[in-house]
Amino acid sequence: MAKISVKLQLNEHGADEITSMTADVGINNVSKAVVWGSTSRNAGFNGICIGKWQIGQAGYLIAQSTGYNGFLFSPTGSDGSGDLEITFTGTNIDSITFYGDPSSGQWATEAILDEGTLYETTAFSDDYIWSIIFSEPASSHTVKFTKWERPDYNMLFTHMEIFPNTMDFDNKHIKEFTSLSQSNSDPKNVFYGVLPNRGDISLIDRDGELKDYAQAGYLNQETFAITISINDKEVQHHIASDSPYYNNKNLLELDLTNSLSQWDNIKCLGFSHDFVETLYDTLNTMLSISGFDEEEIDGMLDTVINIGSEDVTVKQYLERIIVEDVETVESSLREAVDKICNIALLQVIENDNGEIKFISARPLATQDELDTAKVIPLRMQKSDFEYEILLSNEYEDVDFM
Amino acid sequence: MKNILIIKDNEIFPKAIGQLAHNLIKNGNIISTDYWTGANPAPYANILSASGNVLTSAIGTVPYNLIQIRNPNIKYLINEGDKIYSTFKYRVTSGTNTSPTLDIGFYSVGLPVKKYVSGAFSNYDNWVTVSQIDESGVTQHEFYFLINYLDADLGTPTTVTVQLKQCGIVNLTRIYGAGNEPDLAECQSIYDDVWLEDRQDKDMYDKVKEFILSDYANGIMSANQKELACLDVYDINGNRVYDFSKGDIIKVGDVVRIDRDNDGNSISYKQNGEPRYWRVVGRQVSKVGVPKIALSLREII
Question: Which residue is closest to B251 within chain A, CA to CA?
Answer without folding.
Answer: A352
